[in-house]
UniProtKB/TrEMBL annotation:
Residues 3-290 form the NAD-dependent epimerase/dehydratase domain. Belongs to the NAD(P)-dependent epimerase/dehydratase family. It comes from the Bacteria. This is UDP-sulfoquinovose synthase. InterPro entries: Epimerase_deHydtase (IPR001509), NAD(P)-bd_dom_sf (IPR036291). Pathway: Bacterial outer membrane biogenesis; LPS O-antigen biosynthesis. Pfam families: Epimerase. It comes from Paracoccus alkenifer.
Length: 404
C-alpha cells in the first residue's frame, strides 16, 4: 500500500513509519515539524538525541534498503497544498497523527488553548474536506485517545466507541447505538472529542472510510526498527508538558529524581507499549470499514493501572523515592476503569504487558542519556485553573530549600 503518515516525525508517528516501511509499504511522511518547534519554544529537548527527519530517512534507507519520503506541509494552514499533495500521490491509506498531543501543553495559557484547537481541529477538517474534494478513496486511520470517554468511574466496561442505549418512543422502547458521550479532561482531549463528530459526519455524508483509534498512554521508547541503528532512535520526552506518566517515572528513577505522583495517585489509566501501538495501527490498516459504514472505533490499549501502583512498582525496581504532589490538573483523585479491547485481540494482537525486562530497558536508555536532562524541566507546572496554579509545586526535589 502507499501510505501517508501525517505527523510521521512524532513519538508514535516515526516508529509507525518505520514499522510499515519494514512491512513493505510505500511510506510518505507529511509533517510540519511543529513538535521540534515546540521543543524550542519550551526550551527542552528529547532525552534521546534525534537527527533531522531527512537524516533519519537516509539512515533507514541505508539500513533497510527501503525509502521513506518526507514532505514538509502544514495540514492546518495549507489546505490547497494538501489537496494537491493528495492528487499527486493518491495514497491508499492516510494515518493521521498530525495533532498537538499533550494535555498539559494545551492548558498552559490561553494562547496554547487557541493553538491546540486551531491546529488539531483544522488539520482534521482540512484532511476530511480534501479527501472528499479530490475523490481519493483512502482509508483514514486517526490516532484518537481513550481520554474522550473521560475518567469517571462508571462501573461498567467502556465499550469500543459506541454505547447501547434504549430510547422510550411512543411505539415502545427502541434499542440504539450512539457515540459514547464524551467527557474530555483537557483542551487537548476536547479536540479529539470534536474530531469524533467530524468523522461521524464525513463517514455518513460522503462515505469516507474512517477508523478512529482510542489510544491509551504509550510507554516504552524502542521498537524492533528503532533498535536497528542509533540514528533511528525515537524521541523520548521527560518534561512536565510532554513526558507521559510511566515513561516519566522510569526516567525520574534513572536520574534519582523523586517519582512525581499527582495527588493520591488513585487515577486509573489505560496503557499500551509502543511496539503494540505500531502493531495495532498495522492491524487496523488491514481491516478497513466499507464506504457507507459508520466510523470503526477501536480501544487501542492493553491494560489499566493506577498511577500510584506504577510509582510503587518503579520504586521497588529501582529504589526510587515516591513523592505525592499537589495535582496540577483538575481530575478525579480516584477512579476505576474497565475497558473493552476485543477487536484488536480478535485481529490477533498479543499484548506486551508491563514486565520488569521492558521497564528496565527504558531505565537503561534514560541512564545512557541522563546527561541531556535539565532537572528544572521535570516538574509538571501547567495548571488546569488559576486556583490550582497557586498550589502547584515547582520544586519537588526541594533544591531551593536545601540551598537556603
Ligand atoms: N501524572 C502523574 N505524574 C506525572 C505525570 C502524570 O501523576 O508526573 C498523572 C496525571 O495527573 C494523569 C495521569 O498521570 O492522571 C496520566 O497523565 P499523562 O501525562 O501520562 O497522560 P495524558 O495527559 O492523559 O496524555 C497522554 C498523551 C495523550 C494521549 C493520552 C491517552 O500525552 O496524547 O491521548 O495519554 S489517555 O490518557 O488514555 O487519555
Amino acid at each position: 500500500m502507499r501510505i501517508a503518515v501525517l505527523g510521521g516525525d512524532g513519538f508514535v508517528g516515526w516508529p509507525t513509519s518505520l514499522h510499515l516501511s519494514a512491512a513493505g509499504h510505500e511510506v510518505h511522511i507529511v509533517d510540519n515539524l511543529s513538535r521540534r518547534w515546540i521543543d524550542t519554544e519550551l526550551g527542552v529537548q528529547s532525552l534521546t538525541p534525534m537527527d533531522s527527519i531527512q537524516e533519519r530517512c537516509r539512515i533507514w534507507k541505508q539500513e533497510s534498503g527501503n525509502s521513506i519520503q518526507f514532505h514538509l506541509l502544514n495540514l492546518a494552514r495549507e489546505y490547497e497544498r494538501l489537496k494537491q499533495w493528495l492528487l499527486d500521490h493518491r495514497p491508499d491509506a492516510v494515518i493521521h497523527f498530525a495533532e498537538q498531543r499533550a494535555a498539559p501543553y494545551s492548558m498552559k495559557t490561553d494562547r496554547h488553548k487557541v493553538y491546540t484547537v486551531d491546529n488539531n481541529v483544522n488539520a482534521t477538517h482540512n484532511l476530511l474536506a480534501a479527501l472528499v474534494e479530490t475523490g481519493i478513496d483512502a482509508h483514514l486511520v486517526h490516532l484518537g485517545t481513550m481520554g474522550v470517554y473521560g475518567y469517571s468511574s462508571v462501573g461498567a466496561p467502556i465499550p469500543e466507541g459506541y454505547l447501547d442505549v434504549q430510547i422510550d418512543t411512543p411505539a415502545g422502547p427502541r434499542d440504539q447505538q450512539i457515540l459514547y458521550p464524551t467527557r474530555p479532561g483537557s483542551v487537548y482531549h476536547m479536540t479529539k472529542s470534536l474530531d469524533q463528530i467530524l468523522f461521524q459526519f464525513y463517514a455518513q455524508n460522503d462515505g469516507l472510510r474512517i477508523t478512529d483509534l482510542h489510544q491509551g498512554i504509550v510507554w516504552g521508547t524502542h521498537t524492533d526498527q528503532t533498535r536497528r541503528h542509533e540514528q533511528l532512535i525515537n524521541r523520548f520526552d521527560y518534561d512536565g508538558d510532554y513526558g507521559t506518566v510511566l515513561n516519566r517515572f522510569l526516567i525520574q528513577a534513572a536520574i534519582g529524581y523523586p517519582l512525581t505522583v499527582h495527588g493520591t495517585g488513585g487515577q486509573t489509566r489505560a496503557f499500551i507499549h509502543l511496539q503494540d501501538s505500531v502493531r495495532c495501527i498495522e492491524l487496523a490498516l488491514g481491516d478497513p470499514p466499507k464506504a457507507g459504514e459508520r466510523v470503526r472505533i477501536f480501544n487501542q490499549m492493553t491494560e489499566t493501572h493506577r498511577v500510584r501502583d506504577l510509582a510503587h512498582l518503579v520504586a521497588r525496581m529501582t529504589g526510587a523515592q515516591v513523592k505525592p504532589l499537589p495535582n496540577p490538573r483538575k481530575e478525579a483523585d480516584e477512579n476505576d476503569l474497565i475497558v473493552r479491547n476485543d477487536q484488536f485481540l480478535a485481529l490477533g494482537l498479543q499484548p506486551i504487558t508491563l514486565h520488569e525486562g521492558l521497564l528496565a530497558e527504558v531505565v537503561d536508555v534514560a541512564r545512557k542519556y541522563a546527561h541531556r536532562i535539565d532537572r528544572t524541566r521535570v516538574p509538571a507546572v501547567s495548571a488546569w485553573t488559576r486556583d490550582i496554579a497557586r498550589r502547584v509545586d515547582h520544586d519537588p526535589e526541594g533544591r531551593k530549600l536545601r540551598a537556603v
